[in-house]
Amino acid sequence: MKNKVIVITGASSGLGEAAARLLSEEGAIVILGARRADRIQSLAQEIISKGGQALAIETDVTNADQVKHLVDEAVNTFGRVDVIINNAGLMPQSSLDRLKIKEWDQMIDVNIKGVLYGIAAVLPYMQAQKSGHIINVSSVAGHKVRAGGVVYSATKHAVRVISEGLRQEVKPYNIRTTIISPGAVDTELPQSVVEPDFAANIQKFYQDVAIPADSFARIVAFAINQPEDVDINEVLYRPTKQEY
Protein backbone atom coordinates (compact mmCIF):
# COMPACT_ATOMS: atom_id res chain seq x y z
CA MET A 1 0.00 0.00 0.00
CA LYS A 2 2.88 2.37 0.77
CA ASN A 3 3.02 5.20 -1.79
CA LYS A 4 0.49 3.59 -4.13
CA VAL A 5 -1.34 6.30 -6.08
CA ILE A 6 -5.06 5.57 -5.71
CA VAL A 7 -7.85 7.44 -7.49
CA ILE A 8 -11.28 7.26 -5.82
CA THR A 9 -14.52 8.48 -7.37
CA GLY A 10 -17.51 9.25 -5.18
CA ALA A 11 -15.02 10.20 -2.48
CA SER A 12 -17.11 12.87 -0.77
CA SER A 13 -19.02 10.47 1.48
CA GLY A 14 -19.80 6.88 2.32
CA LEU A 15 -17.71 4.10 0.81
CA GLY A 16 -15.31 6.41 -1.02
CA GLU A 17 -14.66 8.59 1.99
CA ALA A 18 -14.08 5.57 4.25
CA ALA A 19 -11.71 4.02 1.73
CA ALA A 20 -9.75 7.26 1.38
CA ARG A 21 -9.23 7.49 5.13
CA LEU A 22 -8.14 3.89 5.64
CA LEU A 23 -5.90 3.69 2.56
CA SER A 24 -4.15 6.94 3.43
CA GLU A 25 -3.57 5.65 6.97
CA GLU A 26 -1.86 2.64 5.39
CA GLY A 27 0.45 4.89 3.39
CA ALA A 28 -1.35 5.35 0.08
CA ILE A 29 -1.54 8.61 -1.85
CA VAL A 30 -5.23 9.29 -2.49
CA ILE A 31 -6.74 11.37 -5.28
CA LEU A 32 -10.30 12.27 -4.41
CA GLY A 33 -12.93 12.84 -7.08
CA ALA A 34 -16.54 13.95 -6.47
CA ARG A 35 -18.99 16.67 -7.43
CA ARG A 36 -19.08 18.15 -3.93
CA ALA A 37 -15.77 20.00 -4.02
CA ASP A 38 -16.07 21.38 -0.50
CA ARG A 39 -16.34 17.90 1.00
CA ILE A 40 -13.38 16.39 -0.81
CA GLN A 41 -11.26 19.49 -0.13
CA SER A 42 -12.05 19.13 3.57
CA LEU A 43 -11.23 15.41 3.49
CA ALA A 44 -7.95 16.06 1.66
CA GLN A 45 -6.96 18.65 4.26
CA GLU A 46 -7.82 16.22 7.07
CA ILE A 47 -5.61 13.54 5.51
CA ILE A 48 -2.74 15.97 4.91
CA SER A 49 -2.99 17.26 8.49
CA LYS A 50 -2.40 13.70 9.67
CA GLY A 51 0.73 13.36 7.58
CA GLY A 52 -0.82 11.75 4.52
CA GLN A 53 -0.85 12.79 0.87
CA ALA A 54 -4.09 13.68 -0.85
CA LEU A 55 -5.36 15.68 -3.81
CA ALA A 56 -9.00 16.74 -4.30
CA ILE A 57 -10.38 17.38 -7.79
CA GLU A 58 -14.02 18.24 -8.46
CA THR A 59 -15.29 15.53 -10.81
CA ASP A 60 -18.62 14.55 -12.32
CA VAL A 61 -18.26 10.93 -13.43
CA THR A 62 -20.92 11.39 -16.12
CA ASN A 63 -18.43 13.62 -17.95
CA ALA A 64 -15.66 11.58 -19.58
CA ASP A 65 -13.36 14.62 -19.90
CA GLN A 66 -13.63 15.34 -16.17
CA VAL A 67 -12.81 11.75 -15.25
CA LYS A 68 -9.82 11.83 -17.61
CA HIS A 69 -8.70 15.09 -16.00
CA LEU A 70 -8.93 13.48 -12.55
CA VAL A 71 -6.61 10.65 -13.59
CA ASP A 72 -4.31 12.89 -15.63
CA GLU A 73 -3.80 15.14 -12.60
CA ALA A 74 -2.94 12.12 -10.48
CA VAL A 75 -0.26 11.11 -12.98
CA ASN A 76 1.00 14.66 -13.51
CA THR A 77 1.35 15.20 -9.77
CA PHE A 78 2.57 11.81 -8.57
CA GLY A 79 4.02 10.20 -11.69
CA ARG A 80 1.72 7.21 -12.02
CA VAL A 81 -1.66 5.70 -11.15
CA ASP A 82 -1.69 2.35 -9.37
CA VAL A 83 -5.36 1.87 -8.47
CA ILE A 84 -8.71 3.34 -9.40
CA ILE A 85 -11.81 2.71 -7.30
CA ASN A 86 -14.86 3.36 -9.48
CA ASN A 87 -17.23 3.93 -6.60
CA ALA A 88 -19.64 6.74 -7.54
CA GLY A 89 -23.22 5.46 -7.67
CA LEU A 90 -26.93 6.19 -7.26
CA MET A 91 -29.78 3.96 -6.12
CA PRO A 92 -33.22 5.46 -6.86
CA GLN A 93 -35.95 2.85 -6.30
CA SER A 94 -39.40 2.65 -7.85
CA SER A 95 -41.54 0.25 -9.84
CA LEU A 96 -41.18 0.48 -13.61
CA ASP A 97 -44.78 1.58 -14.06
CA ARG A 98 -43.99 4.88 -12.35
CA LEU A 99 -41.96 5.73 -15.45
CA LYS A 100 -39.08 7.49 -13.68
CA ILE A 101 -37.19 7.81 -16.93
CA LYS A 102 -34.91 10.61 -15.73
CA GLU A 103 -33.88 8.45 -12.78
CA TRP A 104 -33.18 5.54 -15.14
CA ASP A 105 -31.02 7.77 -17.32
CA GLN A 106 -29.16 9.12 -14.31
CA MET A 107 -28.39 5.64 -12.96
CA ILE A 108 -27.14 4.50 -16.36
CA ASP A 109 -24.98 7.62 -16.68
CA VAL A 110 -23.43 7.36 -13.19
CA ASN A 111 -23.41 3.63 -12.44
CA ILE A 112 -22.43 2.32 -15.89
CA LYS A 113 -20.91 5.14 -17.92
CA GLY A 114 -19.06 6.47 -14.88
CA VAL A 115 -17.33 3.10 -14.48
CA LEU A 116 -16.49 2.92 -18.18
CA TYR A 117 -15.08 6.46 -18.11
CA GLY A 118 -12.90 5.54 -15.13
CA ILE A 119 -11.59 2.50 -16.97
CA ALA A 120 -10.94 4.56 -20.10
CA ALA A 121 -9.01 7.15 -18.11
CA VAL A 122 -6.60 4.73 -16.39
CA LEU A 123 -6.18 2.00 -18.98
CA PRO A 124 -3.59 3.69 -21.22
CA TYR A 125 -1.40 4.51 -18.20
CA MET A 126 -1.72 1.03 -16.70
CA GLN A 127 -1.01 -0.65 -20.01
CA ALA A 128 2.14 1.43 -20.39
CA GLN A 129 3.22 0.68 -16.80
CA LYS A 130 2.39 -3.03 -17.20
CA SER A 131 0.73 -2.81 -13.79
CA GLY A 132 -2.36 -1.48 -12.07
CA HIS A 133 -5.55 -2.40 -10.27
CA ILE A 134 -9.09 -1.45 -11.29
CA ILE A 135 -11.71 -1.83 -8.54
CA ASN A 136 -15.35 -1.48 -9.60
CA VAL A 137 -18.19 -1.24 -7.09
CA SER A 138 -21.23 -3.36 -7.86
CA SER A 139 -23.78 -4.46 -5.23
CA VAL A 140 -25.73 -7.41 -3.91
CA ALA A 141 -28.27 -6.00 -6.38
CA GLY A 142 -25.80 -6.97 -9.09
CA HIS A 143 -26.45 -10.60 -8.12
CA LYS A 144 -30.14 -10.45 -7.22
CA VAL A 145 -33.03 -8.40 -8.51
CA ARG A 146 -36.04 -7.33 -6.46
CA ALA A 147 -39.21 -5.49 -7.41
CA GLY A 148 -38.63 -1.74 -7.27
CA GLY A 149 -34.93 -2.04 -7.95
CA VAL A 150 -34.97 -3.27 -11.54
CA VAL A 151 -32.93 -0.54 -13.22
CA TYR A 152 -30.50 -0.25 -10.32
CA SER A 153 -29.92 -4.00 -10.45
CA ALA A 154 -29.47 -3.81 -14.21
CA THR A 155 -26.73 -1.20 -13.80
CA LYS A 156 -24.97 -3.23 -11.13
CA HIS A 157 -25.19 -6.41 -13.21
CA ALA A 158 -23.61 -4.37 -16.00
CA VAL A 159 -20.71 -3.40 -13.73
CA ARG A 160 -20.00 -7.08 -13.12
CA VAL A 161 -20.18 -7.90 -16.84
CA ILE A 162 -17.87 -5.02 -17.72
CA SER A 163 -15.43 -6.01 -14.98
CA GLU A 164 -15.25 -9.66 -16.03
CA GLY A 165 -14.69 -8.74 -19.67
CA LEU A 166 -12.03 -6.26 -18.60
CA ARG A 167 -10.33 -8.92 -16.47
CA GLN A 168 -9.89 -11.12 -19.51
CA GLU A 169 -8.67 -8.31 -21.76
CA VAL A 170 -5.98 -6.92 -19.45
CA LYS A 171 -4.10 -10.17 -18.73
CA PRO A 172 -1.21 -9.21 -21.08
CA TYR A 173 -0.63 -6.02 -19.08
CA ASN A 174 -0.40 -7.48 -15.56
CA ILE A 175 -3.46 -5.45 -14.48
CA ARG A 176 -5.65 -6.75 -11.67
CA THR A 177 -9.43 -6.26 -11.47
CA THR A 178 -11.77 -6.51 -8.51
CA ILE A 179 -15.55 -6.27 -8.18
CA ILE A 180 -16.83 -5.40 -4.73
CA SER A 181 -20.54 -6.07 -4.17
CA PRO A 182 -21.72 -4.72 -0.80
CA GLY A 183 -25.03 -5.33 0.87
CA ALA A 184 -26.58 -2.72 3.15
CA VAL A 185 -23.85 -0.32 4.25
CA ASP A 186 -24.47 2.88 6.20
CA THR A 187 -23.95 5.59 3.56
CA GLU A 188 -25.93 8.37 1.89
CA LEU A 189 -26.97 6.01 -0.93
CA PRO A 190 -30.52 5.45 0.38
CA GLN A 191 -31.06 9.22 0.21
CA SER A 192 -31.18 8.92 -3.58
CA VAL A 193 -34.52 7.10 -3.18
CA VAL A 194 -37.16 9.82 -3.48
CA GLU A 195 -40.44 7.92 -4.00
CA PRO A 196 -41.99 8.19 -0.50
CA ASP A 197 -43.17 4.58 -0.09
CA PHE A 198 -39.96 3.05 -1.44
CA ALA A 199 -37.86 5.52 0.55
CA ALA A 200 -39.61 4.57 3.79
CA ASN A 201 -38.98 0.86 3.19
CA ILE A 202 -35.33 1.38 2.29
CA GLN A 203 -34.69 3.66 5.25
CA LYS A 204 -36.19 1.14 7.67
CA PHE A 205 -34.21 -1.72 6.12
CA TYR A 206 -30.94 0.20 6.42
CA GLN A 207 -31.70 1.28 9.97
CA ASP A 208 -32.27 -2.36 10.90
CA VAL A 209 -29.27 -4.04 9.27
CA ALA A 210 -26.72 -1.62 7.77
CA ILE A 211 -23.07 -1.90 8.80
CA PRO A 212 -20.43 0.88 8.80
CA ALA A 213 -18.67 2.01 5.62
CA ASP A 214 -15.28 1.00 6.96
CA SER A 215 -16.34 -2.59 6.17
CA PHE A 216 -15.91 -1.66 2.52
CA ALA A 217 -12.61 0.08 3.14
CA ARG A 218 -11.15 -3.02 4.77
CA ILE A 219 -12.13 -5.17 1.80
CA VAL A 220 -10.54 -2.69 -0.61
CA ALA A 221 -7.34 -2.77 1.43
CA PHE A 222 -7.42 -6.58 1.47
CA ALA A 223 -7.65 -6.76 -2.32
CA ILE A 224 -4.92 -4.16 -2.89
CA ASN A 225 -2.56 -5.66 -0.32
CA GLN A 226 -2.39 -9.08 -1.96
CA PRO A 227 0.89 -10.04 -3.67
CA GLU A 228 1.10 -8.89 -7.29
CA ASP A 229 0.47 -12.43 -8.55
CA VAL A 230 -2.84 -12.68 -6.64
CA ASP A 231 -5.92 -11.18 -8.29
CA ILE A 232 -9.01 -10.95 -6.05
CA ASN A 233 -11.67 -10.82 -8.74
CA GLU A 234 -14.86 -10.44 -6.71
CA VAL A 235 -16.02 -9.97 -3.14
CA LEU A 236 -19.72 -10.20 -2.26
CA TYR A 237 -20.52 -9.31 1.33
CA ARG A 238 -23.53 -8.43 3.46
CA PRO A 239 -24.32 -7.49 7.03
CA THR A 240 -24.67 -10.68 9.05
CA LYS A 241 -28.31 -9.70 9.68
CA GLN A 242 -29.16 -9.20 5.99
CA GLU A 243 -31.38 -11.97 4.65
CA TYR A 244 -31.36 -11.26 0.89
Automatic annotation (TrEMBL):
Entry-linked SUPFAM superfamilies: NAD(P)-binding Rossmann-fold domains (SSF51735)
GO molecular function annotations of the record: oxidoreductase activity, acting on the CH-OH group of donors, NAD or NADP as acceptor
Keyword Oxidoreductase in annotation: yes
PROSITE patterns registered for this protein in UniProt: ADH_SHORT (PS00061)
Keywords, sorted A to Z: Oxidoreductase
Pfam families attached to this UniProt entry: adh_short
Keyword Oxidoreductase among record annotations: yes
Family: Belongs to the short-chain dehydrogenases/reductases (SDR) family.
Name this polypeptide is given: NADP-dependent 3-hydroxy acid dehydrogenase YdfG
Species: Chitinophaga sancti
